[in-house]
């Protein structure tokens, strides 16, 4: 390091220690973003549990864990992702175990999982849906899979360990009884079993005996124990047998990418992810520069006399620039290192809150050092960039004027406004051309265009602020002082206004895009059923139990209809109605299998001709235009599930008549809801060999009360398999939290920018305020000036931010909404934008006026 830089860093250290308040504020503007970024990275890395980190939770001390999937499996080497083709119905658990023992020549320890409803005697609460897990009590192979919190592990078939989440939900403690079906267990302890991703909030219990779960054969896992490791070729062989496998040896030494199925190769970061990360990094740098820039400007201003003495003693302009940049580098590095260091306990606290407070799972605490180093470097770079303009200004100062305590006004470079307008024009052009395309990639053009507009606005702001200063004469005294001070001290005020502008602009753009997307989704929403109706999707084996539960709980008879098509032995079968125009079905399959009595359960009453046609083995269609000579044409396509290639295609012509298949009461009389375009009889489906997949059972609106619906859902959770219960209640209305979060984040950004800039402005304006006090101004005047400073900065930044955010926000609505049936939709949330752009500035002004000191210590009043 040259002697000039060493001297610069010594002076920087002295100035930082002398101006502790200003230095702390700069450190906050740099350190807080670093703290948040590193904390988020650490929490994400810790929460993302990889199989390699989770090997003990997945297989204990075994060499591998195999899970039956029901067909030929294609999986990633670590087993975290897989596909399968074939019959997903598992064979007998004993057969699965024998198959594994034969293929692997290993001792196989089963872990039996199921689902059940558990209750605590005497609590009087609703049953709690739980995971029921049966694990051998005395097998050391699987013992490490249990993470015991309190008490002891269960030792007999009538004992159980429960998860903390179940203990809280059911109000259970050690020694209490847990009822599951016809089984009763004594609680011996609390803890979590299995993967680290399973947090304490999970509702589960573990017992060595039969669990009492309705479906013990669901997704069973077997832990393998043998001397030799399970190699990748053995994993692939087990895949062909129908098992997905996690192997300890493969996790430690994964195969070459060429040996794994192509779809599961490690792709690393995609170009889209890289672009997003780059845009985020650039955005963070811009925001830090805008927030820290005013502080460096004030610091350079207050150090002008010392710097002028350096220049008078022979220091060159380069020496002066180095001193200012050295301050930025030292502050940036120190703040970034402190922020990174504080992020470790902050991340640990966040992880602990997520685990203990929200019951989430987490892996080993993991700090991503490479990302942390990158964020620290980013903080130093941002701080140094923020000091470039003040460094250039002090290098060009009038040394004689500064030593004589005269402060000449700062003149902005004439070319910057035009450069700013040019950059802003390019940004608008990007948003208006490439950004409004629907072919993909438009979001990047919008992001780049928005950044160019922000940078362009920063270049224009000094000229704009000077223009507003000419209007100050008509304002009250406090506002007049604030406006004129901002117009005179653009090196300080322009970055502060720009910081607020950037936050409001981003919030405005996101608010318009999100609100328009939500409005388009609501406009495009087509109800699947009449409002309040319920449908249950299940398999053939559970139909009778679902109907019995509905009859017992609500005295309802659910009509059943079966979907044509499905996957059998690696083949997908699809059946479509050959018709003119688009399908009329609002939701669900194109072709259903049902009898006239089944349709009556759906509230669809067929006329005698349609009923007779179905009873005779024919079909009914929703539109007579789809018939040709009394025949409906059904296209039957068979595809290979793996390759996606067509195996066969045929056309069936079946006798059919038109029928009114609309569900009642219709949500929209002009657009009735149809369960399917065509309904064929069960006899026709059997005769033509058409497979059926899911069964849908329907209940008209008003069939279930709220309490009955809750009881019915609980009964469905206790049945084997996956019963999907859907109640038509209109479009999703869960978007409000996103708008609230956006308002809070935008508001905090505006407050931080306005209040920090106000603090810096008041520090810099102490001589002027002292002059006012000397001529008789009251302490309240200082408070009003402080409020006016915050209000002017926030209002000007907010209004400009709305103007800057409108263009990318409106541009983003095109790719988001133009492709839907309703077409391009624009919804501007005026209330949200007004709160951020006008309401928060008023709050900032009020806070500044309330908390600023009314009286000043004695300071020197500098001559102008």
UniProtKB/TrEMBL annotation:
Protein name: Putative ABC transport system permease protein
Domain of life: Bacteria
Keywords associated with the record: Cell membrane, Membrane, Transmembrane, Transmembrane helix
Transmembrane parts of this sequence: 276-298, 329-355, 367-389, 416-438, 444-465, 494-513, 738-762, 790-810, 830-852
Positions in coiled-coil regions: none
Tagged with keyword Transmembrane helix: yes
Keyword Transmembrane: yes
Compartment(s) where it occurs, according to its Swiss-Prot or TrEMBL record: Cell membrane
Membrane topology field: Multi-pass membrane protein
Pfam families: FtsX
Domain ABC3 transporter permease C-terminal: 742-853
A GO CC annotation given for this chain: plasma membrane
Species: Mumia flava
